[in-house]
Structures
1.
Amino acid sequence: VSGSNPAFAKTAIIGVGLLGGSLAMALRQHRLTDRIVGCGRSEENLCIAQSRGIIDAWTQNPAEAVQDADIVVLATPIEAFVPLAASFRSHLKSGSLVTDVGSVKGALVGKIEALMPDGVAFVGGHPIAGGEEAGCAAARADLFAGKRCIITPMPTSDRTACATVIALWRAVGMRTEEMDPFAHDTLYGLVSHFPHLVAYALVNTAVGSDERAIDYAGSGFRDATRIALSPPDLWRGIALANRDAVISAARVFRKELDSIIFAVEKNDASALEVLLHKAQKARNDISGKTVDEE
Amino acid sequence: VSGSNPAFAKTAIIGVGLLGGSLAMALRQHRLTDRIVGCGRSEENLCIAQSRGIIDAWTQNPAEAVQDADIVVLATPIEAFVPLAASFRSHLKSGSLVTDVGSVKGALVGKIEALMPDGVAFVGGHPIAGGEEAGCAAARADLFAGKRCIITPMPTSDRTACATVIALWRAVGMRTEEMDPFAHDTLYGLVSHFPHLVAYALVNTAVGSDERAIDYAGSGFRDATRIALSPPDLWRGIALANRDAVISAARVFRKELDSIIFAVEKNDASALEVLLHKAQKARNDISGKTVDEE
């Protein structure tokens, strides 16, 4: 498959938001599909997507959307993945492929794969792209270009389908990497899911202590809390689906923060500098590297 | 004083880093001083500052630097303020003015003012400008333009000197605001000092859990931890000088984070969404406002 682009006569995008809409645009730009049907809950969003040419047609019925589709992409908030798969499974075309763009894999890929009928393969994927904007109005064809995509097959996953999903993301410009679904969740729990919760908590700390405090927030606070602008319904779902990794990251974080605060309490300048310096060095080490948007 | 710019025959900048160097450049650009003498520990940094025309001359001896100076600006890491003031106090010219650019005021302004000889006034200031870069190589004349500067006189402070300090920062383009030194520290403990410690702790969490994790950090993590690139010696001093506010912010933050993590543990989607939504709304409310760099 490497070197040749996949081609899909009909693509169904379930959830035409920032990721789903951008994938639709990228598939079209790279001529990977003939026809794209969008599906979602917001009629207004679907109308915008159609009027902008992001999708060719839309329906609010998932079972109708997947009919005759060669590939189905789950791009809603992750909470909806399993109920959606259950609702459209009997309408999937034999030989078709289902994938997703969800930020959590371990708890989900097994459940979704188990729901697939004979002749339909599921392979999970997590394109590390996006941002705090929501809705197809923010979609753009180059959202994925140059970014990383983690593909998370299970030992039971169909290898041909896995190769097709890899080829799909490569065709829209991503650097792909295979990873165990649970290893993925531990990793992204640490560097993405838990840090989002910290950002929300930081904002709540400022507004909870003093209403006017946040008006004095400078660029440091704003950068540190930019991800707190992310849609709460999306990140609620991600945090809950990746509970174990989030809770274990929180445990490590509490210890790390406690060490720093303990050094402040004890007025221990040298211990404090060691802790801050360790962080500065590690953060500086990634400064020059390619950045995945998320 | 309002409307007329202050003028200083000789300015002494103690600590010619990002802030001190930028102030020197801004004073010169706005023709507020005839001559600038720099003082610091690093001969290399002082040579760079002189060769770039940021300062006219330099000395490593603070007592020599302040001789005949009309205004002395403390712009070193804050830990050095009190020892420096003690070392140069007897060399200050009668009628001169001492000010500073430190991020912590409550614990410092009283001590510095108490060290001033008769005929010399001290008024503290905190220009909310800067960034994670260090040294005069990063200095620029427009660093302060359009940003906020908090002036923190005490009830005992000389009002004429206070007016001069306000006029100085306005002349280089800042929006000035007077505030009680301790109120300043509580506020900036919440929106700046403690969030820096959180950023350092977040990086240590990622590298402490899994060495390769940080390589997977996307733009969200990077923004959230950009302030962990800030110089550890500077922020160690700030955290220790503003211990009480930092510790009290940490206490509020632990409660806020615990509420979020508790909702995750209990799988309480609605409680979690309420907490995330509150933060998103508050963060969104400041998105359109003028940003102070720091």
2.
Amino acid sequence: MIHQTAIVSDKAKLGSNVSIGAFSIIHDDVEIGDDSVIGSNCEIGYPTKLAEGLPLIIGKGALIRSHSIFYQGSIFGENLVTGHRVTIRERVVAGKALQIGTLCEFQGDCEIGDYVRMQSSSIIGKCSKIGNFVWIFPYVVLTNDPHPPSNYQLGVTVEDYAVIATNVVVLPGVTIGEHSLVAAQSLVKVDVRPHKVVGGSPAKEICNTSAIRLKDGSNDKAYPWPRHFHRGYPADVVKEWLETYS
Amino acid sequence: MIHQTAIVSDKAKLGSNVSIGAFSIIHDDVEIGDDSVIGSNCEIGYPTKLAEGLPLIIGKGALIRSHSIFYQGSIFGENLVTGHRVTIRERVVAGKALQIGTLCEFQGDCEIGDYVRMQSSSIIGKCSKIGNFVWIFPYVVLTNDPHPPSNYQLGVTVEDYAVIATNVVVLPGVTIGEHSLVAAQSLVKVDVRPHKVVGGSPAKEICNTSAIRLKDGSNDKAYPWPRHFHRGYPADVVKEWLETYS
Amino acid sequence: MIHQTAIVSDKAKLGSNVSIGAFSIIHDDVEIGDDSVIGSNCEIGYPTKLAEGLPLIIGKGALIRSHSIFYQGSIFGENLVTGHRVTIRERVVAGKALQIGTLCEFQGDCEIGDYVRMQSSSIIGKCSKIGNFVWIFPYVVLTNDPHPPSNYQLGVTVEDYAVIATNVVVLPGVTIGEHSLVAAQSLVKVDVRPHKVVGGSPAKEICNTSAIRLKDGSNDKAYPWPRHFHRGYPADVVKEWLETYS
């Protein structure tokens, strides 16, 4: 299961049934849970003085696709899935079933809940706090410096079930409320209230999410999205959603 | 021509005079045409259940630069050229002489014509249809979900000779008309008419493309761009352009 | 110091105490200064006909992180630091202590001063001229073609101490004045005057930078930023700043 070209530190702790792809490097301070797959050309546990001595802990059932880089000093719950070429820096604490799209970058020092899904190429700045069941689409940036460059960091908060569409910049200290929707290409300068749609540059409140209808012919309400979108979530979660939202 | 560190499946079908760079991986379901060059650290024919059994077919004369990843299940015409670190997922059908810039991502299930040229870091969503001689500049996103997240996909159509400038988001279902120009940083919510310039967030019609003059001192019309821009296109194409557009 | 899996041309000139990571490739026309570290999976001195015979010269004390690609034909001063997966094309001339974030791309033919710092994922177009002590945040694009596609290139100029925030597009030929601040998500179409804040799409002048106060509780002026931000700069530079700006 460990490719003969992979370079695996004998200090790394690999669970049972862990597979490591060709040309990948596993450094010292790494613990990888059972039944995980690390693709080719990855670098896992990249050493940094900013997290010296801290292990990288990856829960069981992970799938880390090729060319990804994880620094030492973060903790991921079970069933992590990544695209290719993600970059994950130190001191990230993430829940279970996190999905990170190709080319995403976590700049470190952030907290992420359960079942968060990110598509490609977003940047999660330091001090970000992301809740559960959040969706982040491509080229989103969660910033943290109110007057760059400075030594002062003010993170973004994204609450449960919020959806941030493509190419959105969220300014430092902003809270994106639960079940809200931030439209594509928005610049978010002020807090977004729960269940609201905001859009524009700067983003303004447009309507309630409940006003948006599915375009699939059903004309059903599109939000809260757990009403209709269940792909890949566990049966008990979907059961609860159906009771809560329908 | 195959570097000694490359890992090449003996089920892969390589044409004559194919070169494979160091630390590259060629999987089973791959056919690469004659006179092609695959750079170092590439992964070609990445297996996916979404295209099981479908081959990746790369036409002759391809140049795939280093660190690129192609999934199984796509077809590319001859003379494909890519930058570094492109990610191409399953079921892409592309014509000849496609140029894909560094870090571009094709999310799969899309159709692309002949002589399309893309600069760096754009994302082509599923269900996109791109015509011939289209230009796409950096950080463009062709989206497909009208109410994310959902199971409903509505692709973007880009017609022949259209030009999409830097950092543009095109919303689901929009058609970008032939010979049109979408200005930088636009959010395109409605169809763009042929030969029109649109810009802004949301994008509005600004003028006809014929109103734009070259700034090189000639004061000639800048559009249709085949009037003056011929670099790298074959002689018969350029001959036809000179007859049609001048 | 040279990993046994690295492929190093015997024509490359490596200084003393240079370290080369696993699976990295060093091509012929490369000179790397003393005490430099090249991470794993890098490709240094990538050959291009556009710079045939021109060496890549990297000054002493460089730290190039893993998966980065440098073409032949550029010159970097001492103490270069890069993130992961940077792409640097031919004929870049850069001063000392340049910091290039993860996934940045230099498209070649540009000039960069001393102590420039870039965060992730920005694109520096050909013909760009960047001064000293400039800051560039993620997803910035310095463009160069006033009517794409064309053969005419008009570069962007960024003067000393200017700050360009996240997701900004600067149009061809624009000058960003010294000590100015371009707010996030701006589209910059006209020159930015020194010491001014601009923002919006298109960007408009908002105020003087001196009007912005630190949000760290001190209420001190946030700009010129060398008043308060000194991390990683040499002591003599900081001493001069304290005399000039406080």
